Amino acid sequence: MQLSEQQIDYCMECGVCTGSCPVAMELDGFSPRQMIKRAMKEPEGDILSNPDLWACLSCSRCSDRCPVKIDFPAFIRSLREKARHQENLPKLSHHGMFHTITSIQAAQIEQDQVKSDGSKPDQVKSDRPKQDRVGWAKEAGKISQTGDYFYFTGCIAYYDVAFEYLDLKMIESARNNLKMLNKMGIRPVISNDECCCGHDAFWCGDEKTFEILAKKNIETIEKSGARTVIFGCPEGYSMFKEAIAERFGPLAFEIRHMTEFLAEKLPDTDLSFKADSLRVTFQDPCRLGRRSGIYEAPRQLIQMVKGCDLGEMEHNRENAVCCGTTAWMQCSSCSKVMQIQRLKEAEAAGAEAIITACPKCQIHLTCAKKNTDHDLKIIDLVSFLADNLE
Ligand code: SF4
Ligand code: SF4
Q1: Nearest ligand, CA of residue 74?
Q2: Which of 29, 147, 292, 342 has the greatest number of C-beta atoms within 10 Å?
Q3: Which ligand has the minimum distance to the alpha carbon of residue 39?
Q4: What average pLDDT is seen over the chain?
Q5: Which atom of ligand 2 sits closest to the CA of residue 56?
Q6: Mean pLDDT computed over 40-61
Q7: So what's the pLDDT on residue 123?
């Protein structure tokens, strides 16, 4: 990523990013400004061997405030791409399980492409088991093979298995997204050929995997005939909105996050919601808030639920703080400190529950409160609506 001379000159005297960065507050020596300075002044090899390249959460708190619009997350991502070639790799969380799933998907897509070219058919194992990505949906509601709407499920089915130990039922969120769409008369396409959106590979600098997955997803969506793709996960949404649209755009379909879609459409339906008296707060996911500019839609949805009282944490909207880790890497004591601070902020706001619109926020905050005396519920927003339908 190239910075202009004017950006570099300003940057050498500034420091707004480091003062805004939640990681810099906890991790000794980590400073986005110093990293930019080093990348400008030192031979490139020095910065590429720095393990702190992986500490940034790409949460955009710094870039949102940068007076000369330096996109630090994009800057660090471009360095990560090069660092990988020097064997400077991130510490993957959960034993690298989610990155392995993504890599397997990309390898299978590549193998299938060889098959369709006809160039190396003997390398393709025709008896390879095919994943079942729609079984949960067939049980939960009505889906289609083709149609105007495509529901992008993302990796939530894998999380359902992986985070059972936290007493989370992650697939419920996808079921509730489908339930809400069905209630609105929409029977979305949910496809067996969908694959990971590539978010984690992209932010880990694994450009090749990201591109393979992105092309496959575009092809799958286009084949379905969908004109609108609805995402339950902010990461998938932001990937299509930013990286995929930039690399492969313009896209032949509109993309919507479920929260903005519901906030727009629900007022025109006769659906209403009522909960037992509950004071809640909202955790703005970085990909939905700062990276996509969606702050009000989730709050409007929460306020549609009678009996529910929404309070704000001290750091909210543009100032919200990340849930502590991203792209399934570098989960550390620094992540835990950030997560516990978030729980404390929610309690200070008088909340009995934190509502969020991101599966990873839900997982990370639930994990953080385990073995502590923070007695907050961590709730998925669409599930909250679906569970409180009148
Ligand atoms: S806020 Fe922007 S200009 Fe200031 S130090 Fe950070 S990157 Fe440089
Ligand atoms: S993107 Fe977030 S974690 Fe990374 S340097 Fe900026 S504020 Fe810090």
Answers
A1: 2
A2: 342
A3: 1
A4: 94
A5: 4
A6: 91
A7: 55
Q: Is the CB of 76 under 6 A from ligand 1?
A: no
Name the CATH superfamily for 269-387.
Answer: AF0625-like (3.40.50.10700)
The CB of 60 under 6 Å from ligand 2? The reply is yes
**Joined tokens for residue 376:** 């907050």
Residue 273 pairs in a beta bridge with: 305, 389
Ligand 1 lined by 14 (C-beta under 6 Å): yes
Instruction: Give domain limits for the chain.
Output: 5-84, 96-263, 269-387
Distance from the alpha carbon of residue 70 to the mean position of ligand 1, in angstroms:
7
Concatenating the DSSP letter of every residue in 202-267 gives HHTT-HHHHHHHHHHHHHHHHHHT-SEEEESSHHHHHHIIIIIHHHH-S-SSEEEEHHHHHHHHGG
Atom of ligand 2 nearest to the CA of 32: 5
CATH domain 5-84 topology: Fumarate Reductase Iron-sulfur Protein; Chain B, domain 2 (1.10.1060)
Does the pLDDT value for residue 44 go beyond 80? Answer: no
Task: Identify which ligand lies nearest to the alpha carbon of 66.
Answer: 1
C-beta 151 within 6 A of ligand 2 = no
Both tokens of 380, joined, read 């998925």
Cβ–ligand 1 distance for 70 under 6 Å, the answer yes
- Note the pLDDT tens digit of each residue in 133-170: 899 999 999 999 999 999 999 999 999 999 999 999 99
Query: What's the average model confidence in pLDDT over 176-194?
Result: 97
Note the pLDDT tens digit of each residue in 89-135.
999 999 999 999 999 999 999 988 876 666 655 555 556 777 888 99
Pick the CATH number of 96-263 from 3.40.50.1860, 3.30.1360.20, 1.10.3720.10, 2.30.30.100: 3.40.50.1860
Order across the sheet with 353-356: list the strands. Answer: 305-311, 273-283, 353-356, 377-380
Alpha-carbon distance 221 to 171, whole Å? 21
